[in-house]
Amino acid sequence: MKLSEEASHESELFSLTALSPLDGRYRKKVEDLAPYLSEYGLIYFRVVVEIKWLLKLSEIPEVVEVPSFSSDARSYLEELICSFSVNDALEVKKIEKVTNHDVKAVEYFLKEKCLSHPEILKVLEFFHFACTSEDINNLAHALMLKEALNEVVVPVMDDMIKAICTMAKVNAHISMLSRTHGQPASPTTLGKEMAIFAVRLRRERHEISSVALLGKFAGAVGNYNAHLVAYPEINWPQISKEFVESLGLSFNPYVTQIETHDYMAKLFHGFIQFNNVLTDFDRDIWGYISLGYFKQITKAGEIGSSTMPHKVNPIDFENSEGNLGKANAGLSYLSMKLPISCWQRDLTDSTVLRNMGEVLGHSLLAYKSALQGIGKLRVSIKTYACYVHVTTYLSLWTDCAAYFFSNL
């Protein structure tokens, strides 16, 4: 029997037949990224850039062919952005089947949408004026990253860091036998060990958020060739800077046909380091569970092990570690590949950039798994059994605890 005949729900069928587990088994956990990092997201942000550029042209007095738009025309164009839907994206894909060019398909889509508006009809050919496809794409990709990070990824990172901070504060004075080289060592406290991870992760999160997302808008090879031929009296570098910054991005004036992607490499390297620290955390928690320092609390009906009911497997931290490894493999490749482009442009970055959703999806899945695992942890009585007298140590710890926890 064919799958299409036996499936009662199209969404379930898609989940079962998806090639990637991010779009299958784990879809519910990462679907918040879909509006930003999917093919739909790419098309949507291309639409945003194309429309915003036409609006910008209407504000330049020297571009007399595009008069200042009326409030009605501006509202019409803005509504095309606000109301853009999956069905609209499907229309773009239909056009692409004819054009065999994804960015040109967006331009044609917008022209069709504006045929009914007499004011915009007069300036249809100024959609995509002086643009190379990469002018649209690089800004779309930067906006995809900006929104995905701000709206989805970073908030989950913050939730996870906050959860570890809470672990540190709640367990600030709970004694624990430390382990060096895997062997019993001097006493420590559970709170202090968690505080270290909280600070490390917060530091790397800050580095990620400090990366400026860059954009270019300088034409076919980055020299404003078409711009200057059409309107030599206009300061096009200044206009481009204003336009890029109006989108909430930073302007990169030193470009070829493409934005050089160096900021992406720095951003993805930041995620690699954040993920490395979290991998260290996952493994330590896994070990503490193994030693009996933590118990895991399951919900009613959950099965901790398929054949050994006396134990609960630390699956959340194992899932987190596995996905961090998968994410870092992709992040490493993107960060090494993207800054390299032959001469003024080759197309290898185009297909590679379509994997941003994958690498950030596996990262997001890992963060959510770790956060879920943290929620199940309870300190075990064995944590107190350090087999050493810790009274003196803890009195010293009380004196320096404020140093560790004051900034959490």
TrEMBL record:
Residues 24-325 form the Fumarate lyase N-terminal domain. One of its GO terms (molecular function) is N6-(1,2-dicarboxyethyl)AMP AMP-lyase (fumarate-forming) activity. InterPro entries: Fumarase/histidase_N, Fumarate_lyase_CS, Fumarate_lyase_fam, Fumarate_lyase_N, L-Aspartase-like, PurB_bact, PurB_C. Keywords: Lyase, Purine biosynthesis. It comes from the Eukaryota. Pathway: Purine metabolism; IMP biosynthesis via de novo pathway; 5-amino-1-(5-phospho-D-ribosyl)imidazole-4-carboxamide from 5-amino-1-(5-phospho-D-ribosyl)imidazole-4-carboxylate: step 2/2; Purine metabolism; AMP biosynthesis via de novo pathway; AMP from IMP: step 2/2. Residues 341-382 form the Adenylosuccinate lyase PurB C-terminal domain. The keyword Oxidoreductase does not apply. One of its GO terms (biological process) is IMP biosynthetic process. The keyword Lyase applies. Pfam families: ASL_C, Lyase_1. This is Adenylosuccinate lyase.
